[in-house]
Amino acid sequence: MIKVVRIDHRLLHGQVIFAWTKSQGIERIIVIDNDAAGDDFKKMSLKLSEPADIKLSVFSVTQAKERMEKINKLKSNTMVIFGDVLQAGEIIPDLNGITEVNYGGVKNRPDTKRYSNAVFLNDEEVRSSQRLKEQGITLFMQQVPTSKRESLDALI
Question: Are 18 and 143 in contact, with CB atoms under 8 Å apart?
Fold first, then answer.
């Protein structure tokens, strides 16, 4: 069962490993990111940061689409992490039962607008996010479970 969907360019890091997994009882993490899936060094780095009691899978968007039926049938408490808003926009509509998406970190780049201290979106990412919002998915920004949850819906 997918409990948390998060977009965070840092993928697997301290906030995810310690705060989110513990607060949500996460047993499995699925990272969906084309760059990480296509880079053996990045995959190895992610595997090294994997907590001992949590299963980790790293997929490209294509690999995730090929495994969608299996992903949607998972029984374990699962967190899905995307490194990119546009890649998330390709996959999230196919994930069963997703009602909200946590924007944890989208880095500042040229041509982006600031939505929080850690979330910066360009026009294409805003449009992708709006499509998720139009499907009834709540979009919010929150670094850790104990920090204030801010609505992204109201800003895009």
Answer: no
**C-beta of residue 129 within 8 angstroms of C-beta of residue 140:** no
CA 149 to chain centre: 16
In the chain, helix, strand, coil percent, each to 5?
40, 25, 35
SS3 48: helix
Span 45-92, pLDDT tens digits = 988 887 788 999 999 999 999 999 999 999 999 999 999 999 999 999
DSSP 51-114: -TTSEEEEE-HHHHHHTHHHHHT--S-EEEEES-HHHHHHHGGGSTT--EEEEEEB---TT-EE
What pLDDT is recorded for position 152?
98
Give the pLDDT score at 97.
94
Give the CA radius of gyration of the chain: 14
Q: By three-state DSSP, how is residue 23 classified? A: helix
Joined tokens for residue 154? 């109201």
